[in-house]
Specification:
InterPro entries: DUF2232 (IPR018710). It contains 13 helices and no strands. The protein is globular, with a radius of gyration of 23 Å. Helix 6 packs across helix 9, helix 10 packs across helix 11 and helix 11 runs antiparallel to helix 12. Helix content is about 75%, strand content about 0%. The longest helix is centred in the last third of the chain and has 31 residues. It has a domain of about 100 residues.
């Protein structure tokens, strides 16, 4: 009886995944939304059945992917099936939302790194290099167009943009990490309401205002900052590590700063619109970002938000 139920429900969930995969492959304007919805059949499967049974259906899904689409989409199915199974397993064991987020981020990171290496080594396709070349060519063409029209291009701004683009290969680890985190977060955002509608429990995040980095984070940040002042050999492992760590740590400090602003606004009973306006304004007015960054640093080392 149990095996019959497993086969029936597994077939239904695989049929749903097949539809999602076909939409992802052939309907470009819906593919972005599908990217966050595709783990759902595997999440439900993993909640209801064991890891062994879930992995069995994962293998069937891989075979089905080759039949209905192409061999090229195997990494996609492998990624969404493993992430979905991990989601479901953690939900079944009533783990926290933060733990699910970190686990899925780690899994997405493994798959994105492996996919990047696969395309670069096997298919000789380097998406990063190609996009950098396109962006650099676009900047050069804009300079030529400005010269032909007799207008003066902002050389300083364009040179800064060119240097920023050239830094992208060094920041690949950070970029892949950020992409993996965004994928994991949006997967939760899209799938969890649907999982609740199906009658399964999902954990909840604490309010954003309660986000706080540990005090020990400041020592780590300080060590990285000290290394950044050294004249490290360009493109060396240490130089790449310091640049990427600096980038990631600054983002975390910005999040800490925004959380502190939301917390202070909550304590002082300001309108909910106030911190949101500050957040939006900081993206528009560049110097405000540095103020938020400073707030993030101060709120860890000195400013105890719980004693305001």
């Amino acid at each position: 009886m149990k095996s019959t139920r497993f086969i029936t429900e597994g077939a239904v969930l695989l049929a749903i995944y097949s539809v999602l995969l076909l939409i992802f492959r052939f309907v470009p304007f819906l593919s972005i939304f599908m990217a966050f919805l595709m783990p759902l059949p595997f999440i439900i499967l993993s909640i209801k059945y064991s890891i062994k049974e879930s992995l069995l259906l994962c293998c069937v899904a891989l075979g089905l992917t080759i039949v209905i689409t192409s061999f090229n989409l195997l990494p996609v199915t492998l990624m969404y099936s493993t992430v979905g199974i991990a989601f479901g397993y953690l939900l079944k064991n009533e783990r926290s939302k933060g733990e699910i987020l970190l686990t899925s981020t780690f899994l997405y990171l493994i798959h994105t790194v492996l996919s990047y290496i696969l395309f670069k080594a096997v298919f000789h396709i380097d998406f990063v290099k190609e996009n950098i070349n396109l962006a650099t060519e676009a900047i050069e063409k804009s300079k030529e167009l400005s010269a032909s029209l007799g207008t003066n291009a902002n050389e300083k701004a364009l040179d800064s943009l060119t240097n920023a683009i050239k830094l992208i290969p060094t920041l690949i680890p950070s970029i892949l990490l950020m992409v993996s985190f965004i994928l994991a977060f949006l997967t939760q955002l899209v799938t969890f309401p649907l999982i609740r509608r199906l009658g399964y429990k999902t954990p909840k995040f604490k309010p954003f205002r309660e986000f706080r980095l540990p005090v020990g984070f400041m020592w780590f940040f300080l060590i990285v900052m000290i290394f950044s002042f050294f004249n490290l050999k360009q493109s060396s492992f240490l130089s790449t590590a310091v640049i990427n760590l600096t980038y990631v740590l600054q983002i975390l400090l910005l999040v800490q700063g925004y959380a502190s602003i939301f917390y202070f606004s909550y304590l002082k009973h300001f309108s909910k619109a106030v911190p949101i306006i500050i957040l939006i304004a900081s993206f528009i007015i560049q110097p405000l970002i540095y103020i938020v960054l400073l707030i993030g640093i101060v709120s860890i080392g000195i400013f105890n938000r719980r004693k305001i």
